[in-house]
Amino acid sequence: MPQSPKGRPLLRAATWNVHRWVGPDGRQDLERCLKVVKAMGAGAVALQEVCPLNRGNCRTFAEAMAGRTGQRLIAGPTLLDERGDYGNAVVTSLPVRRVRRWDLSQPGREPRGALEVTLEAGGSLVRLVATHLGLRAGERGRQLELILKQLGSRQADLEIILGDFNEWRPWAPLLRPLRRSFESGPRLATFPSRAPLLALDRIWHRPSAWRAVHRLGGEPALARAASDHLPLMADFFHPA
């Protein structure tokens, strides 16, 4: 959907930790989560804590995603437990040019990863990196170092890092390397969903010439009920 900066955005990207599809009411409900994804109207959505992503159920889940939202699912599982594989995923309606999965796991900590998906939007290449960082600051810092090393120099018209950063401190030293080359929007509180206090979910992009407009996504009441995080989205406008 390429448009001028005064019109509709070239791309709407979003991130959402779906908490295994379990809302604050303790009820697992895939259908209401899919309604939230569809309501965002995003060309690409990064999801965290997605399950199941194992071979036995992934096809059924992907078919459900396609049927309810009209989007394709790209899986990036990071953990196998008794409930089946789970981890990151990207759902998109855009042409996919490349997919890479990165291991960000740190010794003694829960396995973590990043899912790199290169998309085409209106003739522009968009490199999207979806992730869910660890719970400890040192762990998150090393994971961000790995992400930036893997990304290297810019290889697409627009590059986006988005996901659940598990980092609520705007002054956190671990974010400094990211700030050197990536832009971020305002810190919008996304957790906990019923009374948001912490900006755990973020969307960063480069180059800065792209204009981004950030806001919370989805139908508000349904989003608050569907997960313990609220979805965050950003509209990206091509440089003038």
What's the overall average pLDDT, rounded? Answer: 89
Would you identify the CATH H-level superfamily?
Answer: Endonuclease/exonuclease/phosphatase
Shape, please?
globular
In quaternary terms, these chains amount to single chain
Beta strands, count: 12
What structural class results from the helix and strand content? alpha+beta
Structure commentary:
This protein is an alpha+beta fold. The two termini are 16 Å apart. Helix 1 (30-40) packs across helix 5. Strand 7, helix 3 (137-151) and strand 8 (158-164) form a beta-alpha-beta unit. Residues 1-5 have low confidence and may be disordered. Helix content is 22%, strand content 36%. The strands form two sheets. A six-stranded mixed β-sheet has the order 3-4-2-1-12-11, covered by helices on one side. Strands 5-6-7-8-10-9 form a six-stranded mixed β-sheet. The protein has one domain (11-237): Deoxyribonuclease I, Chain A (4-Layer Sandwich), CATH 3.60.10.10. It has helices at residues 30-40, 55-69, 137-151, 176-181, 220-226, and strands spanning 11-17, 44-50, 72-81, 84-92, 96-103, 113-121, 124-132, 158-164, 183-184, 201-206, 211-216, 232-237.
Gist?
The protein is 22% helix and 36% strand. By secondary structure, it is of the alpha+beta class.
Task: Give the key terms.
globular, 6-stranded mixed β-sheet, disordered N terminus, 240 residues, alpha+beta, Deoxyribonuclease I, Chain A
Give the SSE map:
Elements: E1 11-17, H1 30-40, E2 44-50, H2 55-69, E3 72-81, E4 84-92, E5 96-103, E6 113-121, E7 124-132, H3 137-151, E8 158-164, H4 176-181, E9 183-184, E10 201-206, E11 211-216, H5 220-226, E12 232-237
Parallel strand pairs: 1-2, 7-8
Antiparallel strand pairs: 1-12, 2-4, 3-4, 5-6, 6-7, 8-10, 9-10, 11-12
Helix pairs in contact: 1-5
